[in-house]
Amino acid sequence: MRGQEWGGHNELSGVVHGPSVQAAVVHGDVHIRTGETAEQQLPWQLPPAVRLTDRTAEVERLERHRALAAQRAHSALATVSGLGGVGKTALALAWLHGLRPDFPGGQLYADLCAQAPTGPVDPAQVLGSFLRGLGVPPQQVPDGVADRSALYRSLTADRRIVVLLDDAATAAQVRPLLPGGSNVTLVTSRRRMSGLALEGGYQVHLEPLAPEAAVELLAATLADDRVATQPDDARALVGLCAGLPLAVRVAGARLAARPQRRITTMVRALTAERGRLDALAIDGDHGVRAALDLSYQGLPAEAARLYRLLGVHPGTEFGGGAAGAVLGAVGDGSGGDSGSGDARADPGELLDVLHDANLLIDVGEDRYRFHDLVRLHAMGKAAEDESAAERAAVFRRIADHYLATATRAERAVDPRHPLRERSYGPGPVVTEDFGDGTRAALDWLERELPNLMAVIRRARTTGDLDVSWQLADALGPYFLRRKHYDAWHTSHAEGLAAARELGDGPAECRMLTSGGQGELGRGDTARALEMFEEAARLFEAASDELGYARTSNYRGLAHQRAGQLEEAAELFEWAAVELPRCGDLRAGGLARLNAADVEFARGRLSRAADGADEARTTLLAVDDSYNAARAATLLGRIRLGDGRPDEAERWLSGALAVLREVAAHYETARALDALGEVAELRGQRELAQGHYREALDLYVGVNRPGPAEGVRERLRRLDEGGTASGPGDRG
User: In DSSP terms, which residues pair with 259 in a beta bridge?
Assistant: First the structure.
């Protein structure tokens, strides 16, 4: 698809000639590695291993099961069950990290979130992430659990990998996530996964630590001589913790922060707390809950407030910016007033306090998450100690934090994306400083995408409907660059529903047009055209001539993708005239560029050249260097087509410099592809091969199988000693 125009933005590109694969995509990082295919890319997703105390017998049982499966050339599937806080994940990580030398094909990890307030993770989402980690280009990730699972099994059939499925809810959730081949899968769950018996699941039930081992863990946590000098009190303390490693670490962390305090003091406090919980008849995990209550009571006031209010956060990871928003800090999230009227508190320092108390898990890069039991405890404390109004205000500050920062990133990625003024709550609005430039903005959006999606979904249920559609809108330029079609589809469906509930016609149109572009990208041309036409009707009913003209460009793109070039050409030509008349010169230039691309595809080189040159002039006049470079690429391809390689090289080289600077990988690949043809026509074999190889890497990275296969064929021809068949032979 060529010349994607988004309310004045043009990004998705490339006419598809011949068969191609278009499909949905999932959340997760985009990995583009030079020379690497899907078969070669290696994912190393396991979290870092943590200290493991006295689980030798369990590790040996798991290892025997694996060895037996290997002897039979079978996959090894094992499940580890047990109470929350008993150390299931610690055991899993210790064992699986030790297998890395024998499984060089990679490590896959997914938190299945059985205990999450929002419910367990959909297996389709996990499969999408796994496929992406295995190097599958986003547009080649199929829709639906069955197709994704089949591709996943195929890709893992000949690999040597390990898979950790953490905190599973049911066997049904797990089954689609089992890899192919003779690989190792470990599942952790509060439940015994007897339902996986048919798949050969080997069950290990993890009991709490024996007293001696629990005392050893306490001694390691304290890192002083108190356990050695107060052995009876130490045994009493770990007994009150029920031998659960999480409870021992939490209680130990509180003692470690008070080196002069005797263990017996903690024993008395924990005894009283356990008695209170027993009296309330709370089921299970008494040791952990009692330890958490005591740790919470011992926190400084601002740290305790941050702890309970983080329970309102809808995502699973957070950093200093989100913590600042939770507290109502003024500034960029690195410090400032707490908003509570108390002493000033630095959010980063308070996160350190919570981490030191073993209440947060450090996941790297100054980011943290809760153990699921701790998150539930924090949520409970928020419900106990904060009013419903305050909890709602906290969520709105969190939502505004992500909305404001995503809007700043939106401007960095595409300064020309038409921006409707955002609406925020009473504040303060804390915006995170992610650095400068397009790449920094894209990296922040990539990292925070799960949180952004969680906010969009939660906002619909809390009545913050403006957040839902505005945040989806802010993600538009990011989706155009990174092609996360699953998230694009979901976010704009939520945003569209929110806009309709609000009765906000302009917002509804934005969701239809931007969401339609996502449908076009994921291959649902019919749905995309339906959405564009619905937006056109709304614009026409509102007498919005500019909006209506923009939808003509969108509709043209849908017809172009469907191979209906005559219809596309008519719509582009009309939009190229009407958009400038309505005051949008840039969108008019983009429509002219789209029309020129259609003319080129139809073999009308002279008309295509005139249109591309006119578009380039207009786009330069409105300071849109990126799309002007795209027009220059088209001019270079046209000059190749009419046998003028010297002119083609000048156009293409100038375009390439601009496209590299803005990390426009697909357009960069197109320019390199054409430059490869220029070099091939001149007999510069090595230069042509270099251009083609770089173009191939980029095509694969941005999920363009059709152009990638064309480049592979040209490279094969060159390797066999062939030459170009003629200028512009690709059209």
Answer: none
